[in-house]
Design a protein that fits this description.
The protein has about 240 residues and is of the alpha+beta class. Helix content is about 35%, strand content about 15%.
């Protein structure tokens, strides 16, 4: 039996009193928000450890993928520019012979300038107006000393008067290695054919591309760079500064 007086619940039955208190607590609990449960220190440390391991595994791969994409983009752009220039020269009833054959001082390489928007004439031999070609490692610079032209994006084109060009896709930036940022092409049948192709002087049967970055071991890598979609992915993995 319950007695109600002045809003209070009175009872002589302890069991009923306990039941009423439980009911009130339950009502209050439904109204008041419960405190959020936290993580223990051990759980936090384990989580951070997992994040660290995942980051150590993925970040290098992401960096390599970014470098490979940059190199691929710059190579494709430079390759497109020199081939477009060759087509324009042919359209003007001329040939790529106008770029070669003369002595360095003759400046025949300058005949390419009208076909390259915003390009800079860097001179010839080992002048440092754009880049001193002695900075190229592990290679014979004698094949690069017959003229230099720098494109508006920093790409450097050097000439060998016997009928070849070298394209440095990132200009004066390092590492200046053949097969990494420097690629060579031969003027054949009114186009620039990448070294390593069967019809070039340095075809892959004699000069295989093996990511060695030396003149004889990587001079034919331009052909691989053109035809192998994974060339630059493999390149950044093998290159150790």
């Amino acid at each position: 039996m319950f007695l109600i007086k002045s809003g209070n619940i009175l009872t002589n039955d302890d069991t009923h009193r306990k039941s009423c208190v439980d009911v009130i607590k339950a009502k209050i609990g439904n109204i008041m928000p419960r405190p959020a449960e936290g993580f223990t220190l051990a759980e936090i440390l384990i989580t951070l450890g997992i994040i660290g391991v995942v980051a150590a595994m993925t970040i290098p791969n992401l960096i390599n993928a970014y470098k490979a994409k940059q190199l691929r983009t710059r190579f494709n752009k430079a390759y497109s520019i020199i081939q477009q220039a060759a087509r324009q020269i042919n359209a003007n009833d001329s040939s790529l012979d106008i770029l070669f054959g003369g002595k360095s001082q003759g400046g025949t390489y300058r005949n390419l300038l009208p076909y390259l928007s915003g390009a800079t004439d860097c001179g010839y031999y080992y002048k440092e107006k754009c880049l001193n070609i002695n900075e190229y490692k592990g290679m014979s610079t004698g094949g690069l000393d017959d003229g230099q032209i720098m494109l508006s994006d920093g790409t450097l084109i050097t000439f060998e008067r016997s009928g070849a060009i070298a394209v440095d896709i990132n200009g004066s930036n390092k590492p200046n290695l053949v097969g990494y940022d420097l690629f060579l092409f031969q003027a054949i049948d009114e186009e620039f054919v990448p070294y390593g192709a069967p019809q070039t002087w340095y075809n892959n049967s004699k000069y295989p591309c093996n990511y060695n970055f030396s003149w004889n071991k990587s001079i034919g890598c331009a052909y691989r760079a053109v035809n192998d979609p994974d060339y630059f992915k493999n390149l950044v993995k093998k290159y150790k500064p």
